[in-house]
Amino acid sequence: MIANPNQFYFSPEDYLAGERESPIKHEYRQGQIYAMVGAKKPHVIITHNLDRLLGNHLLDRDCIVFPTDMKVRLEEANCYYYPDVVVTCDERDLSSPEDFILYPSLIIEILSPSTANFDRGGKFADYKTATSLQEYVLVSQSEMNIECFRKNEQGIWISQTYKRGEKVNFASVNFNCEIELIYRKVPGIAKIDKD
Hints:
Structural class: alpha+beta
Oligomer: single chain
Radius of gyration: 17 Å
Strand content: 25-35%
């Protein structure tokens, strides 16, 4: 996120109206608007891989996978974010004509050096206000490392990390795959180990 140098308060309605006309994407957090910067190649490839894998997995279920261009509205936190990948299986989102969703079950963010701290801290805290959210996933773009936070039955977020050679599980959508498939074709990471 890059802060708007104009630190005036914007209403959610003003943000949405401006965002519909803007040639670039912005996120909205409690009255402030932040321009989004372009993604590097590893980020784009990982996002594409996750979109394809999850989309194929959920093809016959009443769920939709949105990569990068769908906003999530967090009413309690007063935010609109563009996750790298988001899945909703809620009928209210599936039937809504809005340009945002309200009931994500799985949110995935690809970490970059400029956003990693915020993705782990403030953004995660904001995402937690979505009562529908079951899993929050942070994916490294510099090494095979995926950290998955799952909300248990007591409402406590439990972390599990996946590394090279392991099978990744997103329990919220009953998805399993080898971590190498998520990093497939990512330069410098997706090397095949030779004997």
